[in-house]
Amino acid sequence: MLINQANLRTLYVGFKTTFQGAFAAVTPRYGVVAMTVPSSTRAEQYGWLDKFPRMREWIGDRQIMNLSGSDYTIKNRDFESTISVDRNDVEDDNLGIYTPVVQEFGRSGASFPDELVWPLLAAGWTTKCYDGQPFFDTDHPVLNEHGREVSYANTDGGSDAPWFLLDDTRAIKPVIYQNRRPTSFVALDSPDDPNVFMKKKFVYGIDCRCNVGFSFPQLAWGSKQPLTPAAYKTARQELTGRKGDFGRPLGIRGTLLVVGPSNEEAARKLLTSDTINGGDSNPWKGTAKLEVVEWLP
Tens digit of pLDDT for each residue in 136-177? Predict the structure, then answer.
C-alpha cells in the first residue's frame, strides 16, 4: 500500500468499522446492578444519596428534602488501551494480523463498564459509600420512627465467595456507573506524526473517562456466608423489612441473586429445585432471577 493520507484514511475507517462491529456485538451486563449517570465535569457530587425518596401524607406545608446533605463525590478517571502498527506492515499490506486486535478493542471497550462495576460490588465490604460506612456493613445509620439514630445491616459477614441479593426493579440501582466520555476509537496515523517519523509506527487506541461508586446500601444484601436456604432466607427477610428514616417501609424486594462461578451450582439448586434439605418442599423456587458473573469469585 502506498503511504499517503488517502490510503491511511481508508485504513483508519476500516479499523474503526471493525472496532464498532465488535463493540456492537457485546451486550454488557453491568446494567442489572448499576445505573448510568451522565457526567459533565471532573467529578460529580451525590448530595441526594442520604435522602431515599418516599411519599408522605401532605399535612401543612411540603417537607422539602435537602439534596445537598451528603458530600459523596465520584471523580472521573481516564482509561486507555493502545497498539502500534508497523509502517512496513502497511506498505506490504500485511494488515490482516491486526484485525483480531482491533476486534478485541471493540469487545473490551463495550465490556469495560463490567470490569469496573462487578469488582466494585465485590469490594463492598471495604469500599465506603455516602454515609462513611463500607457499602456492606452492619452499622449503617437511619432514623427510627421517633427520629432517633439507629443502625441497620445489609450483610451478615462470612469468609466464603460473595453473593448478593438485590432489588433490580427500581430506577436507582445499588451501583453508579458515571460516564463522562464513552469509549472512542482514536489514531495518530499521519505520515508527519512524530511516532511515524521517529519509530515508523502508526498508533491506534481507545480511551474513555468514567468511574464507579455506590448508591443506596438499602437496595442490596451482600453475604460471604455459604449460600444455603437459611442464608438466603435471612437476606430476603432483611431486604423486605428494610425501613427508611422515621420507620417508613421502603418496599424493597429481593428480585435478583448475583453470584460468581463458585456459587452457581448452589444458586441454581436454590432457585430451581422442587425440594431442599433432603426432601422438604422448596419455598424459594423461582423467587429471584439469577445472574452468574464471571468477574466475581
Answer: 999 999 989 888 999 999 999 999 999 999 999 999 999 999
Model pLDDT, residue 61: 53
Q: In 3D, which of 151, 116, 131 has the Cα closest to residue 72?
A: 131
Closest by CA position to 142, among listed 241, 234, 253, 11: 241
CA angle, 128 then 134 then 138, to 5°: 155
* Number of other CB atoms surrounding residue 100 within 10 Å: 11
- Residue 207: CA atoms inside 13 Å, Cβ hemisphere, count? 13
220-224 vs 155-158, strand pairing mode:
parallel
Residue whose grid cell is 457485546: 26
Torsion of CA 62, 38, 222, 289, to 10 degrees: 100
State the pLDDT confidence band at 95, using cuts at 50, 70 and 90.
confident
**CA-to-CA dists, residue 88 to 7, 95, 147, 194, 272, angstroms:** 14, 10, 73, 16, 58
Specify the pTM.
0.88
Domain ranges of the chain: 5-51+67-292
On whether the CB atoms of residues 52 and 244 are closer than 8 A, the answer is yes
